[in-house]
């Protein structure tokens, strides 16, 4: 049965209060109830058929009021009227908010009363007794802290307590005035004492946390009983307070917030707040609140460049990051955004005056900021990288705001670009991409979300290939192929889906290939044959082997040598497909079948090689590693190394395996295989320990490896190392002696070898003993080499190798390597002609030094620094003293060059050496060079070496054959791979060490040769071209047009090198008459042609940079400033002088031109900077004369010529900022050290006086401030004035301010900014009058701002807030009510 529906009754909204309690008709806010008879309820035919639609207020709206307002605002006259209207409002507010002085009253007299009557009087004071009655008998028995304690004890209201304090104080002042002091002095003295008394009272009461004490202090400060001394004392106590006392002192500071904003000690508040962020949370939280209130109420006080660099991190923490302090208060988004805006405003205004202004490249817009963040994160990837942390930071894995899909795609794109760009180096990057993507994909556990991320990766990678298909657009094809091969291998990219996409778009036709390309097959067969030629015993087995093959030192020497250059080039240039096919489908399977398959029987039971063990020897393993490294197939390389490590007990293989693993550590990290490597090494070490065959190289590598897994077992590893050091040496020594006996040329030295002190059963690792052994071996090698006649050095290499094995066995028993012993031997080395060991051709001795490095006995850096550099220094000193080298010294120089070629270039095939190094030796030496290249001290040593070689090249006879040797070394060094990679990764350090650090040389030809090394390494070919202005301009245009955030460092160095070369082109070297002229080498060999004496080359290039590039806006001034920053001083001077000419010639300047001058001024002298300021002031004066001010024009708005005037003036003011630091420091120094009577005669003083007058006049210029519309220009000039006054110090500032008062300055400042002018620049106002009657006196406004009186003492009263146009704010809540004066209970205030 259907129920009757109840009629709908309109109910008021729930949880919503009515607008008025009694007036119900007002309804509820934002709620409009229906009314009876309204149009919506009328059931007309039209409403039923068409529905109700409200009628428009205007039937046909033909125009918008917005257009009327917009046109009025755009009209300069209307804008001027609006400015005048706002100025009039500010003037009226100023009149309303001005305080009026209160009328004086008769001061009651104090009388002596008993203690009981005093306490009764205080109880009446705390009650409701009228003050008129209490004033009749004010007790005199209390004063000082006792008075404050009694007032607090009786809980006297604040107003009555202040009244009582005033009466007591005035009576004491009057009593002292009648005796020996004037009224003013007595008031000063009492105020000072009362401040000290109140400070002591507050300090004693701070632990009780009584708010009434603070309110009493505030009340008495407002009434003039306390002055700024109490504020300074409060800051001192706040700085020293512990976490218990901090709350009361911080509350005190908050109560006096407005007063702190108007005195100099405001900076102390910021200082203390900054120092308390690391203290307990309550103190830090309150300090943070103070800083927030200061910055939001008075941002100007934070425009203080002197303190900005110290406290900018504090402000960023408070306003932006919000991480250091966790509070329960949730800051609204709008408030947080406003705080961030305040911080950016303060930061921008401060950094204008920062001498070391941070580079804004990469931070100017959101896109640059994102890209620079990406580059910064990816460039952290390198040795021992935490990839979990990198991936979390890169993709914001742990953030509450995950990335959107578009943002993820952008990050994946830049990740791939980083892996293949030529502006970064390192084969590990390809594997880093796969690892980072894998971490990001695996950071979610949900299978559906993980699948979605895989789809995002696939789509992003396909988009990347659309931009860089197979290495187009400046990306190497092989790099892209290697990257995507690794991504396919790890399941991040589907090649099949990519082909389907290309087919669907019509980019690829789906058709069967008609003919097969045989080029890959031919390359495959050729590469296989090359490998077989180097590994004959591996692929042509004629008999079953029980142990690794022992190479014949003579007949198999060609197998140990490195591949020919043609073979190496062929293997590198074959397709990636061919390389992978050869290695993975043929080479590695063949290697893994090359094992011991003969069962153990009576004929081979003594063979240590077990069935299934690898039969590779060290030479074969090094050759295979070389092939795989050429193909950059590091997955196969790691597979090979771990397999050989597990399946071999051949002692000679372990050092080669460790060297290779160490050489590619960064790749194993990028692949995520470091722990796998450590596990394999630990397992092998345990196996060898059980066999009592511990290998020292494995143990040392594990000990030096920082990993939690290794650290847990470090004790056991150190025990293994100690056991190896205590092992017997006699058997190893005897074995090496037996090897010596096989060579007839060594038999005569066997007795001397055996005489070495190593025949004991347990070798004692005594330093002196090792030194004697080392010295003895070198002497034997020197004498042996004199009798050696084999041009191929076959036997000599073997003998040196035996000495190396012998030294390795000795050093395995010591705690240190031979570095100290080698340094000691070098120090004892004689350079007398007959004793100079390098005075004769001795290739074997050089090979011995190479062997020390290859066997890890002596660091390469030690040999280069203490042997090569020391001997070259002696030769340079002799040549510098106008003496030529004798024949033995020429041979010594050649020997040192040969040693450098062997160590740095691994170039034993050179015609001057003819001692080719084997593959293993080259690999170890390259590994040493790549490791040392990451250390700045090694770069310094290398640059010093080549500087000395360049000096020798310039100073020796032009016909000497040594010149060709030196030239060839310089050219080959600049082309070596590890040095070229160093120039890409760390180009600025290379430039600083090689070029910039050598510009102190007077020999320009030496500079040219050093410059050429870096130019060639960076691939700079401009030096090979004809030296004309058009060539250099074209080259510079190419550099500057290709600038991006990825290559800005490299392009900057190339720009510097080009400008350095231009400066050196016309240079000549003064030569003494006793030395021959310097010979310029062949163009092709030295990359330096004969420089034509074109005097206009330098000027033409610099003119083009300024007039065509900068002034026409063809380049971003920010980027060009970044390029110029740090350039050589001589280049800066030339660019600066041309820039000055541009400033004089041009009125309007391009935006941000000051950034270019900022970079140029960095390296210039102080005098040039001061002259720069003088020139700018003269230009401002000229602009003011050319554009005179017409007062009538302001009524009709600003004309176009006014815009030109403002633009020209402001651009010069921005440039003046650059010299402000130097000018203020020079003036301060001059005024401090000079007699004040003659200070006006000093040019710097006159200059800064002229500067202040000019700036103050500009502040008053209506065209600058535009009646409030030109706030940016006004802020800049005002900040500059404030900065100059702050930087000069009190004494210098006092002199300047005194002089400025003599100048007539028109005060035409908008009322809206008048209080800001008074705060930072009160010098344009008359002196203030303080006090009445005898106390009436004047005080300088600037001293008033600084809190100083006439005698440099603190003022006796607080700052008059009306002087700052302050608003009236309410007093504390506990105040007396005013009643009718006719009432007997009237109150006296």
TrEMBL record:
GO terms for molecular function: transcription coregulator activity. One of its GO terms (cellular component) is mediator complex. Residues 104-166 form the Mediator complex subunit Med12 domain. InterPro entries: ARM_SRB8, Mediator_Med12, Mediator_Med12_LCEWAV. It is found in: Nucleus. One of its GO terms (biological process) is regulation of transcription by RNA polymerase II. The keyword Metal-binding does not apply. Pfam families: ARM_SRB8, Med12, Med12-LCEWAV. Keywords: Activator, Nucleus, Repressor, Transcription, Transcription regulation. Belongs to the Mediator complex subunit 12 family. Component of the SRB8-11 complex, which itself associates with the Mediator complex. Component of the SRB8-11 complex. The SRB8-11 complex is a regulatory module of the Mediator complex which is itself involved in regulation of basal and activated RNA polymerase II-dependent transcription. The SRB8-11 complex may be involved in the transcriptional repression of a subset of genes regulated by Mediator. It may inhibit the association of the Mediator complex with RNA polymerase II to form the holoenzyme complex. This is Mediator of RNA polymerase II transcription subunit 12. It comes from Dentiscutata erythropus.
């Amino acid at each position: 049965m259907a129920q009757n529906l109840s009629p709908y009754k309109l109910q008021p909204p729930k949880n919503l209060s009515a607008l008025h309690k009694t007036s119900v008709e007002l309804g509820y806010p934002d709620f409009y109830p229906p009314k009876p008879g309204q149009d919506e309820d009328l059931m007309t035919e039209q409403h039923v058929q068409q529905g109700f639609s409200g009628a428009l207020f205007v039937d046909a709206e033909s125009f918008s009021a917005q257009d009327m307002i917009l046109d009025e605002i755009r009209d300069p006259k209307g804008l001027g009227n609006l400015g005048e209207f706002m100025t009039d409002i500010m003037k009226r507010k100023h009149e309303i908010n001005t305080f009026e002085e209160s009328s004086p009253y008769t001061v009651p007299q104090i009388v002596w009363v008993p203690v009981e009557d005093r306490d009764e009087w205080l109880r009446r004071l705390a009650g409701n007794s009228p003050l008129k009655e209490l004033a009749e008998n004010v007790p005199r028995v209390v004063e000082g802290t006792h008075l404050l304690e009694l007032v607090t004890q009786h809980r006297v209201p604040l107003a009555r307590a202040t009244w009582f304090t005033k009466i007591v104080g005035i009576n004491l002042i009057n009593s002292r005035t009648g005796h020996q002091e004037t009224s003013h002095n007595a008031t000063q003295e009492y105020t000072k004492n009362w401040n000290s008394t109140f400070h002591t009272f507050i300090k004693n009461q701070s632990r009780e946390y009584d708010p009434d004490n603070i309110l009493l202090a505030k009340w008495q400060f407002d009434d003039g009983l306390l002055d700024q001394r109490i504020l300074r004392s409060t800051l001192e106590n706040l700085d020293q307070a512990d976490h218990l006392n901090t709350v009361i002192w911080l509350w005190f500071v908050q109560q006096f917030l407005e007063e702190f904003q108007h005195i100099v000690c405001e900076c102390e508040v910021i200082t203390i707040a900054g120092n308390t962020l690391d203290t307990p949370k309550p103190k830090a939280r309150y300090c943070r609140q103070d800083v927030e209130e200061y910055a939001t109420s008075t941002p100007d006080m934070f425009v203080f460049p002197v303190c900005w660099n110290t406290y900018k991190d504090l402000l960023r923490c408070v306003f932006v990051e919000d991480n250091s302090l966790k509070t329960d208060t949730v800051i609204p988004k709008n408030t947080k955004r406003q705080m961030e805006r305040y911080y950016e405003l303060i930061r921008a205004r401060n950094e204008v005056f920062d001498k070391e202004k941070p580079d804004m490249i990469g931070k100017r817009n959101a896109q640059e900021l994102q890209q620079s963040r990406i580059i910064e994160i990816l460039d952290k990837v390198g040795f021992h990288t935490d990839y979990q942390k990198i991936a979390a930071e890169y993709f914001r894995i742990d953030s509450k705001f995950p990335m959107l899909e578009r943002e993820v795609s952008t990050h994946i794109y830049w990740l791939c670009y980083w892996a293949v760009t030529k502006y970064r180096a390192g084969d590990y990057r390809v594997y880093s991409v796969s690892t980072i993507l894998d971490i990001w994909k695996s950071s979610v556990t949900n299978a559906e979300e993980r699948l979605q991320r895989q789809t995002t990766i696939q789509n992003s990678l396909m988009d990347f290939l659309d931009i860089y298909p197979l290495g187009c657009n400046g990306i190497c094809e092989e790099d892209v192929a290697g990257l995507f091969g690794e991504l396919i291998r790890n399941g991040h990219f589907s090649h099949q889906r990519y082909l389907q996409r290309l087919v669907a778009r019509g980019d690829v036709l789906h058709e069967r290939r008609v003919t097969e390309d045989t080029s890959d097959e031919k390359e495959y067969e050729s590469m296989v044959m090359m490998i077989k030629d180097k590994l004959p015993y591996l692929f042509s087995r004629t008999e079953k082997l029980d142990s690794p093959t022992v190479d014949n030192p003579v007949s198999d020497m060609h197998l140990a040598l490195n591949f020919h250059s043609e073979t190496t080039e062929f293997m590198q240039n074959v397709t990636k497909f061919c390389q992978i096919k050869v290695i993975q489908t043929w080479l590695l399977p063949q290697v893994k079948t090359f094992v011991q398959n003969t069962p153990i029987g009576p004929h081979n039971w003594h063979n240590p090689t077990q069935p299934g063990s690898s039969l590779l020897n060290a030479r074969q393993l090094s050759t295979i590693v070389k092939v795989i490294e050429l193909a950059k197939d590091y997955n196969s390389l790691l597979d090979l190394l771990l397999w050989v490590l597990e399946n071999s007990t051949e002692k000679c293989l372990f050092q080669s395996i460790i060297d290779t693993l160490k050489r590619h550590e960064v790749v194993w990290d990028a692949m995520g295989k470091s722990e796998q490597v450590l596990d394999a090494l630990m397992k092998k070490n345990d196996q060898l320990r059980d066999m009592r065959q511990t290998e020292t190289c494995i143990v040392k590598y594990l000990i030096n490896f920082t990993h939690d897994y290794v650290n847990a077992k470090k004790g056991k590893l150190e025990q293994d190392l100690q056991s190896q050091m205590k092992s017997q040496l006699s058997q190893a020594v005897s074995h090496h002696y037996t090897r010596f006996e096989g060579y007839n040329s060594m038999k005569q030295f066997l007795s001397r070898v055996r005489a070495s002190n190593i025949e004991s059963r347990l070798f004692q690792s005594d330093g002196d003993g090792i030194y004697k052994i080392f010295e003895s071996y070198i002497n034997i090698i020197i004498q042996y080499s004199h009798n050696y006649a084999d041009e191929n050095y076959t036997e000599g290499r073997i003998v040196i190798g035996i000495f190396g094995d012998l030294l390795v066995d000795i050093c395995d028993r010591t705690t240190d390597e031979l570095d100290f012993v080698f340094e000691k031997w070098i120090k004892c080395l004689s350079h007398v002609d007959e004793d100079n060991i390098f005075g004769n051709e001795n290739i074997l001795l050089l090979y011995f030094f190479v062997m020390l490095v290859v066997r890890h006995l002596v660091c390469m850096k030690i040999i280069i620094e203490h042997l090569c550099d020391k001997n070259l220094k002696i030769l340079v000193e002799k040549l510098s003293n106008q003496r030529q080298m004798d024949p033995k010294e020429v041979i010594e120089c050649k020997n040192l060059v040969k040693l450098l070629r062997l160590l740095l270039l691994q170039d034993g095939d050179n015609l001057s050496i003819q001692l080719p190094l084997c593959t293993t030796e080259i690999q170890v030496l390259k590994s040493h060079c790549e490791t040392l290249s990451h250390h700045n001290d090694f770069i310094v040593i290398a640059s010093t070496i080549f500087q000395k070689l360049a000096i020798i090249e310039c100073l020796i006879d032009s016909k000497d054959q040594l010149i060709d040797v030196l030239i060839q070394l310089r050219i080959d060094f600049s082309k070596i791979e590890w040095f070229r990679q160093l120039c890409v990764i760390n180009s600025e350090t290379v430039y600083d060490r090689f070029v910039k650090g050598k510009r102190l040389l007077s020999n320009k030809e030496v500079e040219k040769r050093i410059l050429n090394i870096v130019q060639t390494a960076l691939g700079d070919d401009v030096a090979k071209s004809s030296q004309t202005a058009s060539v250099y301009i074209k080259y510079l245009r190419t550099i500057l047009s290709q600038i991006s955030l990825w290559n800005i460092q490299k392009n900057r160095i190339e720009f510097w090198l080009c400008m350095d070369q231009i400066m050196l082109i016309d240079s000549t070297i003064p030569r003494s008459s006793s030395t021959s002229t310097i010979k310029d080498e062949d163009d092709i060999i030295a990359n330096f042609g004969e420089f034509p004496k074109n005097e206009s080359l330098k000027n033409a290039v610099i003119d083009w940079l300024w007039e065509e590039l900068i002034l026409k806006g063809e380049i971003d001034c920010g980027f060009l400033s970044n390029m110029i920053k740090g350039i050589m001083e001589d280049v800066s001077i030339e660019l600066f002088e041309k820039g000055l000419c541009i400033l004089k010639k041009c009125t309007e300047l391009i935006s941000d031109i000051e950034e270019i001058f900022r970079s140029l001024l960095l390296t210039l002298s102080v005098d040039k900077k001061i002259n720069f300021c003088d020139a700018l002031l003269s230009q401002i004066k000229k602009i003011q004369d050319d554009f005179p001010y017409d007062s009538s024009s302001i009524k009709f708005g600003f004309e176009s010529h006014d815009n030109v005037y403002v633009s020209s003036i402001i651009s010069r003011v921005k440039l003046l900022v650059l010299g402000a630091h130097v000018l203020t420091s020079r003036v301060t120094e001059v005024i401090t050290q000079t007699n004040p009577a003659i200070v006006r005669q000093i040019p710097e003083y006159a200059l800064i006086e002229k500067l202040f007058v000019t700036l103050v006049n500009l502040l008053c210029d209506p065209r600058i401030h535009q009646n409030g519309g030109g706030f940016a220009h006004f802020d800049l000039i005002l900040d500059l004035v404030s900065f100059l006054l702050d930087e000069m110090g009190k004494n210098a500032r006092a002199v300047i301010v005194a002089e400025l008062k003599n100048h007539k300055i028109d005060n035409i400042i908008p009322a809206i900014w008048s209080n800001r002018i008074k705060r930072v620049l009160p010098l344009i106002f008359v002196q203030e009058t303080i006090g009445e009657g005898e106390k009436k006196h004047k005080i300088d406004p600037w001293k008033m701002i600084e809190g100083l009186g006439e005698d440099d003492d603190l003022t006796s009263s607080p700052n008059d807030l009306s002087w700052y146009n302050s608003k009236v704010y309410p007093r504390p809540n506990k105040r007396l009510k005013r009643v009718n004066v006719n009432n007997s209970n009237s109150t006296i205030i």
